[in-house]
Amino acid sequence: MAGDRDGITSRISGTTPLGRALFVATILAGSFLLFLVQPMVARMALPRLGGAPAVWNSAMLVYQALLLGGYAYAHALGRVRPRMQAAIHIGVLLVAALWLPIGLMSADLPPDAQPAVWVPWLLLGSIGPLFFAVSAQAPLIQRWFSLASGGRDPYALYAASNFGSFAGLIAYPLLVEPGLALHEQSLMWSGGYVLVIAFVLACAGLLPRTPAEAHVRADSPPPARAAVVRWIALALVPSGLMLATSTYITTDIVAMPLLWVLPLGLYLLSFTIAFADNRAPADLITRIAPVTILLFGGVMMAGYNQGPWFSLGVSLLLLFMVSVALHTAMYRSRPAPDRLTGFYLAMSLGGALGGVFAGLLAPVLFDWTYEYPILILAAGALAPQTFLTNAIRDVWFVGTTRRIAFLTVGLAIGILILLRFNGPAALFGEGHDGFAFIIVAAIGLATIGFRPAYLCVLAAALMIFGGYRSIALSLDPGARTRSYFGVYTVRGDDRVRELDHGTTVHGIQLRGSVAREKTPTTYYAPGSGVGQAMRAAPALYGPAARIGVVGLGTGTLSCYARPGQSWRFYEIDPAVIRIARDTGQFTYLSRCLPNPTIRLGDARLSLAAEQASSLDLLALDAFSSDAVPMHLMTREAFATYARVMSPRGLVLVHISNRFLDLEPVVAAAAKAGGWHAAVMNYRPSSLERDASSSLWVALSRDLAVLATLRRQEPDWRDIRPRPGMAAWTDDYSTILPLLKHF
Questions:
Q1: For 724, left (φ over 0), alpha (ψ -120 to 50), or beta?
Q2: Are the beta carbons of 615 and 649 closer than 8 angstroms?
Q3: Closest CA to 428 of 299, 308, 305, 309
Q4: 4-32 pLDDT, tens per residue?
Q5: Torsion of CA 519, 525, 529, 532, to 10 degrees
Q6: pLDDT of res. 112
Q7: pLDDT at site 113
Q8: To 5 degrees, how large is the angle CA 633–CA 637–CA 641?
Q9: Rounded to an integer, what distance in angstroms lies between the CA atom of residue 104 and that of residue 421?
Q10: Of the candidates 112, 99, 121, which has an alpha carbon nearest to the alpha carbon of residue 45?
């Protein structure tokens, strides 16, 4: 009788508002921690691995694999009685607690450590057990809620789970990183983990005690294999599109640091809407999603160079609409609560496969971000569709009129494709400005509801508005290269050749004569800060000056080399080395420094392995597109530079950036490290057509070295520190105070 009363008490407790609030709080806390730890650990890894975009992409794949493992564990746990589930899971949480406080394991990595190899190993050994244990929370606690409440639908709790994930992800760059050092973040997260264990214990107390009330075995019919495959596909496309959007916007739109937070945040927020009790927002977005995919997919492929922020907003809105629509379709086909964990396992598998496709296979298979239009087309194939009007439905419903309509659509699209290659350019304009876009949009809207015709129009739009240009570049040998670190495009003709990394020019070489090909251009022109320093090197350090350059690019700086000098380049990407040295597309190295010493790997790790006082001049120019390598700007990094420099050594730091004011960061590091610093804001005259504006900081322990530069060029000025700005360290840094106003 006592057991029966306990079971009744548990059942009643599970149905009360307080009991439901406890389950919601447990899911929220676990999901908050899960997505707070992702950027936190990636940030911890930067000083050891470098290459922020590469570290993040590899970390995301590890997280998705661990999430899949956690969901599989939760699914397997559903086969035992609820109280035994609780005992096992609490045991797993306690064992994982041995890895607290959270942080990176000790490991000596080689200077040429590649993130694709080392990030999975480092993260699995550092946080694998903790992430695995917490990742099982969402499906497991939902299942417990259903058992404790007598079979109530638990799926709305998944909306709470993803809201917690969204909150954790956004809280890191906005609150946690600016306010806490890494060791404080670690302690905070560890405290949150202990709180989650307490919540799980409280939820376990509400579970049924008797076998009759346990409902361990699934009574509903198992889902058909086709349904499981559909769940996987519906999860795969938004997951892959989330990573593809991150790559696309930082490659072809706005290469701004931390933009990866926005796609992932919107992806998580889509679950909150798709799984919410209030169905109106999800149903509305699902209805208009095919329109969004058709119109915005074409805009994104066309590009809109005069409005990068507009393109950014459109790409994020497209991702959000697709994610809500496909996740809503998944929610509508959800199984009974007793099949819940299997449903989430299929969802997690689809998410992991999407990550593998966009983050692992695409950089190997494609030389551009082709995964982006492929996933847009897949979204169009999967998103639920309804005819916009009854008249349109009648056209596509009757066999005779359907065939006529299909032929008409095909003919119109065929004519547009022919005009794309042979017609007036003004017909297509840029982005959404061309008259052809209006025609494609009108045809596409008339096909919504009849998927075969809709997909034909969508595929044609992706091809007409930009796809053909990408394919043409891919078919041009050597024009484009994609590596683990980005997309490189070589453009030009017989007079000028240019290397672009994403949206940023990484080198321009004049062609035609030996003198032209040996002329430094862009940010490295003779009048720039680094150009002046290179020309002053013989006077400062004699004919045997030892010079290092972080970031090879096209090898432009090599044309400042003089006989007798010793030069070393530090480059993380083998693809850049091949473009600059081996393909013959750029001849700076072959003309000016035929046998350069190139250290492959992250520059900070490579410099740490160099002998002390082995360089006289060091130029830091290691940006990934326009993103700042944060781990190269910390106090510890500048201590590494100080060790490797001679007592009178000179360090040049390139801080040109469209989005961040990096001068206060270098000023704070200079003050903390005992450096003297001056800034050169170079603005070329109208006659210097091949030079670019640039901002360089010169640092030296010897004030006389900077005085020499000032005598050579009076435009050098004192660096401007920002009051209250502390030097970045490996333990603390934030870019929020550095954002420029637009």
A1: left
A2: yes
A3: 299
A4: 434 434 444 456 778 888 999 999 999 99
A5: 40
A6: 59
A7: 58
A8: 115
A9: 54
A10: 121
Q: What DSSP string describes 134-155?
A: HHTHHHHHHHHHHHHTTS---T
Task: Say which DSSP state 624 is in.
Answer: B
- Encoded tokens for 74: 């939760």
Q: Compute the distance between CA of residue 574 and CA of residue 94 in angstroms, rounded to an integer.
A: 43
E strand or H helix at 348, and its extent?
helix 340-356
Longest Cα–Cα distance in the chain: 98
Confidence of residue 3 (pLDDT cuts 50, 70, 90): very low
**Between vectors from CA 470 to CA 468 and to CA 475, what angle results, nearest 5°?**
95
Alpha helices in 333-467 (DSSP H): 340-356, 362-365, 371-382, 390-397, 399-422, 435-447, 451-462
Residue with tokens 């990550």: 355
At 489, the amino acid letter reads T
pLDDT digit string, tens, across residues 386-418: 988 888 888 888 778 888 888 888 888 888 777
Please give the average per-residue pLDDT across 646-664, as a whole number: 90
Sequence-ordered list of residues with C-beta below 8 angstroms from that of 184, at least 6 positions apart, any chain: none
Range from 208-212, 267-271, 582-586, 718-722 carrying the lowest mean pLDDT: 208-212
Residues 6+ apart with CB under 8 A from 257: 52, 627, 628, 630, 659, 660, 735
pLDDT at 163 over 50: yes
Q: Which helix (H) or strand (E) holds 52?
A: helix 52-77
Residue with tokens 């589930």: 85
**Are residues 263 and 166 in contact, defined by beta-carbon separation less than 8 angstroms?**
no
How do residues 594-606 score in pLDDT, each as one tens digit? 889 999 988 888 8
* Rg of the chain taking only CA atoms, in angstroms: 29
